[in-house]
Design goal:
The strands form four sheets. The protein has a five-stranded antiparallel beta sheet. Strands 1, 2, 4 and 5 form a four-stranded antiparallel beta sheet that branches. A three-stranded antiparallel beta sheet has the order 3-12-11, with no helix packed on it. A hairpin with a 6-residue loop joins strand 7 and strand 8. It is of the alpha+beta class. The protein starts with 6 loop residues before the first helix and ends with a strand. Helix 1 packs antiparallel against helix 2 and helix 3 packs antiparallel against helix 4. The chain has a single domain, classed as Creatine Amidinohydrolase (Alpha-Beta Complex). It has four helices and 15 strands. About 30% of the residues lie in helices and about 25% in strands. The structure holds magnesium ion (MG) (2 copies). The site of one magnesium ion has 6 residues, from strand 7.
Length: about 250
């Protein structure tokens, strides 16, 4: 069931989104060669608490999972797409790091992610990151009343195809609000004009995930998902409200 949010609720979500945007900016600066991903997790945890919000991912346990998530941040390196658990791994020059974080603010969840290159990355890595970020912008542009989820998915997949990349299989964006994951699923592929009609008051996390190789994934021991062929991946995400004036990015 899709839960629509009032303008007041969207206003509260925008407050939380500003906090999350600041946290991600801080993480982007802190992510350098020689830094352990668990150090970045500590940066995220402290920054969220300092801002008066709560980490959304810490102890989060999706239906069917045996354990809650052990960290504030997902830090996924190179072929790992999402859910990388921060560890003692020291970032290296050339790594492609995905930073995915969430906060809870006044009862509402916000979710956002970005990909950063550590030091000097390959031309292919740059192209992949640019494509995924461009796809997020293109997807957001479709997030308007009267358009559909298929329009968003189509716009995202088109950018992947145009650049010779794949949309990662089996992982999607989602509705978000009083729960971190709400209906509907927001797919990174679709048919123009098909699927759920977008309505004022819907709030969704749009999150293109691209792979340089094929899109197939496998689950690793820590519960993260990596490209099965070991190819590089990129991920960008914003929480976006659909308003009468068009898309409103809440996590900028
Ligand atoms: Mg996320
Ligand atoms: Mg998400």
């Amino acid at each position: 069931m899709i839960t629509l949010k009032t303008p007041e609720e969207i206003g509260i979500m925008a407050e939380g989104g500003r906090i999350l945007g600041d946290v991600l900016r801080e993480l982007k600066i802190a992510a350098r060669a020689g830094v352990a991903t668990k150090e970045l997790d500590a940066v995220a945890y402290k920054a969220i608490l300092r801002a008066g919000a709560k980490p959304a991912f810490l102890h989060y346990r999706p239906a069917g999972a045996a354990h809650g998530y052990p960290a504030t941040l997902c830090a996924s390196v190179n072929d790992v797409v999402v859910h990388g658990v921060p560890s003692g791994y020291l970032l290296q020059d050339g790594d492609v790091l995905k930073l995915d974080c969430g906060v809870r603010h006044k009862g509402f969840f916000l979710d956002a992610a970005l990909t950063v290159g550590i030091g000097s990355v390959s031309g292919q890595a740059k192209k992949l990151m640019t494509a995924a970020e461009t796809a997020l912008t293109a997807g957001i542009k479709e997030a308007q009343p009267g358009k559909t989820l298929g329009d968003i998915g189509f716009a995202v997949a088109r950018i992947a195809k145009k650049n010779g990349f794949s949309v990662v299989d089996g992982l999607t964006g989602h509705g978000i609000g009083r729960a971190l994951h709400e209906d509907p699923y927001v797919c990174n592929f679709g048919v123009r004009g098909a699927g759920e009609l977008l309505r004022e008051g819907m709030v969704i996390a749009i999150e293109p995930m691209f792979a340089a190789g094929a899109g197939a994934i496998r689950e690793l021991k820590d519960g993260s998902y990596a490209a099965r062929d070991g190819s590089l991946t990129a991920h960008f995400e914003h929480t976006v409200a659909i308003t009468e004036n068009g898309p409103r990015i809440l996590t900028e």
